[in-house]
Design a protein that fits this description.
Layout (H helix, E strand, L loop, with lengths): L2 E3 L14 E3 L10 H10 L4 E4 L4 H4 L8 E5 L6 H5 L2 H10 L5 E4 L4
Length: 107
């Protein structure tokens, strides 16, 4: 599974996943949400990880080849995100194209 980390996530978070790239690495830094979804799909990504709370509400994912995992964390700092790693990995095992899954905060 090929994973794209939105630019709102720390670069080092990519090391938590076997095949993950950052938006910066993929040449998508600064790309707005709608175009980011299209470009990520075109580049062959299966899942977008983000903390952008508005993305799933503002963009219809039905019919897309890409899925989105929305991470609800206290902050977007690596220390807080690592506490949610197991639920994120679980979501990656079950998510399907066109779905948006919310991983809630560990609080």
């Amino acid at each position: 599974m090929k994973i794209l980390l939105d630019e709102c996530l720390p670069l080092d978070f990519r090391h938590s996943f076997p095949d993950a790239h950052t938006a910066q690495y993929a040449g998508l830094k600064g790309t707005k949400n709608g175009e980011l979804l299209r470009a990520a799909e075109a580049a062959g990504y299966d899942v977008l990880l983000t903390v952008d709370q508005g993305l799933p509400r503002s963009h219809d994912l039905s019919g897309r080849k890409l899925a989105v995992i929305l991470i609800r964390s206290r902050t977007n700092q690596l220390e807080d995100l690592l506490h949610l790693l197991e639920p994120i990995l679980q979501a990656l095992r079950t998510i399907r194209p066109g779905q948006a899954v919310v991983v809630p905060s560990a609080e």
